[in-house]
Specification:
Helix content is about 35%, strand content about 15%. The protein is an alpha/beta fold and about 375 residues long. It has two domains: about 200 residues, 3-Layer(aba) Sandwich (Rossmann fold); about 150 residues, Rossmann fold.
């Protein structure tokens, strides 16, 4: 069986790229089709030894760095330029760039079977909070309204051509059902971290995230200042996010920005932290809280989104109910009075292992192709 993998683009290395990496390990001979990549980016460095096939847009000057977002209406022409007729199966890894619609369902053309691993229907198209809040500018709101009208029609049409959907959580499965009127099978993404051995706990709370909007980093900083607790934030600014300097100005001596850190350093940070904070109000799934639990460290999470599927309340973490300093402060005070078993955290996290992901993907592909 001849297989191709399709992914939005290769730039930052986040949860979607970790899924793509696991898929490329399952199918090492499958080429990766993508809109573009940025050389020397974190994602490109992970995949540069694979066969990567880019679209014509990759050749446009500044497209990968600046233009792919404002020119997102080009997505239909980008994906339509690829010919997958020689393949038996396409596995698409889809989120915001409408990376789907290569399958045989609803068409007589010679096409492969398509299995779409959907991280989420594009958040920007359906009113979900995004990392860049450009909607505060009226000209952008007008532009987004016009482009969004046509892109929603395109996205829905492409979703109907997918043969089988896999969703990364029950949360996203609900969105796929509501938006596309399609059923999906939940296969949670693969989670793994380097092993670093036994370490001593330290007195700090931790956030590991790209420095973008919608992650609640400002909420964590304000709460840490109010409570006088130590907070470490690991991760670099990404995309068009413009608030990083504001966050640094807001911070006091008990807040430390670590920038980009290696996988080994990430594992050490998880293992030595008192607790890990995840604050997005509607996370698709969220791999970082599982990584934290895999390190034996409990989680303080907003009660919503994919966190409800990974964190066991009062056993591997605690929830807070409102995205406010008061609500988060109460959760931290509650956490400080409780004891959590590292073994319970690790046991819960192992339900989301890479081995489990590969096994479930192979079983799904063998059944449906």
């Amino acid at each position: 069986m001849k297989i191709a993998l399709v992914h939005d683009y290769l730039n930052e290395f986040g949860g979607a790229e970790r899924v793509l990496l696991a898929l490329s390990e399952i199918y090492p001979d499958a080429p990766i089709y993508t809109a573009f990549y940025r050389e020397k980016s974190q994602a490109y460095e992970r995949f540069k030894n694979k066969k990567i096939i880019t679209s014509w847009a990759h050749k446009i000057p500044f497209f990968s760095k600046y233009l792919h977002s404002p020119l997102r209406f080009l997505a239909p022409f980008i994906w339509g330029s690829f010919d997958f007729s020689e393949y038996d199966l396409v596995i698409s890894s889809a989120s915001w760039y409408v990376t789907k619609g290569f399958g045989t369902r609803g068409t007589d053309k010679k096409r492969p079977v398509e299995i779409c691993y959907c991280h989420t229907p594009p958040r920007w198209l359906y009113g979900y909070k995004t990392s860049i809040e450009f909607q505060k500018y009226w000209i952008v709101r007008l532009y987004a309204k016009i482009v969004g009208f046509f892109m929603r029609k395109y996205d829905f049409t492409m979703a109907q051509k997918v043969n089988y959907f896999i969703s990364n959580s029950k949360n996203v499965a609900g969105r796929i059902k509501d938006i596309y009127h399609r059923d999906s099978t939940v296969i949670y993404p693969p989670v793994e971290i380097p092993e670093i051995g036994r370490v001593q706990k330290e007195d700090y709370y931790l956030i590991i995230s790209r420095i973008v909007g919608g992650k609640g980093i400002d909420l964590a900083i304000k709460t840490a200042i109010k409570l006088g607790i130590k907070l470490k934030v690991a991760g670099s600014p990404a995309g068009y996010y413009m608030e990083y300097k504001k966050l640094q100005k807001l911070s006091k001596n008990n807040i430390e920005f670590l920038g980009h850190v290696t996988d080994t350093e990430v594992a050490r940070l998880y293992a030595t932290a008192k607790a890990f904070l995840v604050l997005s109000t509607d996370e698709d799934f969220g791999m970082t809280p599982v990584e934290s639990m895999l390190s034996g460290t409990p989680v303080i999470a907003f009660r919503g989104g994919g966190y409800l599927e990974s964190v066991t309340e009062n056993k591997t973490g605690v929830f807070f109910n409102e995205p406010t300093v008061e609500s988060l402060s109460e959760a931290i005070k509650k956490f400080e009075k409780m004891k959590f078993s590292p073994e319970d955290c690790i046991t819960q996290a192992k339900k989301f292992s890479k081995e489990r992901f590969k096994k479930e993907i192979l079983e799904f592909v063998n059944k449906h192709s």
